[in-house]
Amino acid sequence: MTQAEIIAKVAESAEISKYQATRVVKAYQEAMTKTLLDEGVMKIPHFGSFVVKERAARMAKNPRDGSPVEVPACRVVRFKPSKTLKDTVK
To answer: Which of 8, 56, 64, 73 is the most buried (most CB within 10 A)?
Structure first.
């Protein structure tokens, strides 16, 4: 699903214009990003949790020639779905 499709669904569901839905979706994305940067966790009830995790440095192989390559440590975002979401998707 693209961002445009999300905006269209929000506009239809909330009975607002696409312009207003765009502002809502972008504000929500900014709030999520800021929360993850500041707190490292964002929980959305009945949906799931986004958590910032540290990934350690590691050695990997270059897929072209098989030579070893060092991958530096970094921060990544992980998503853990709630039980409600898991049960709904089943």
So the answer is: 8
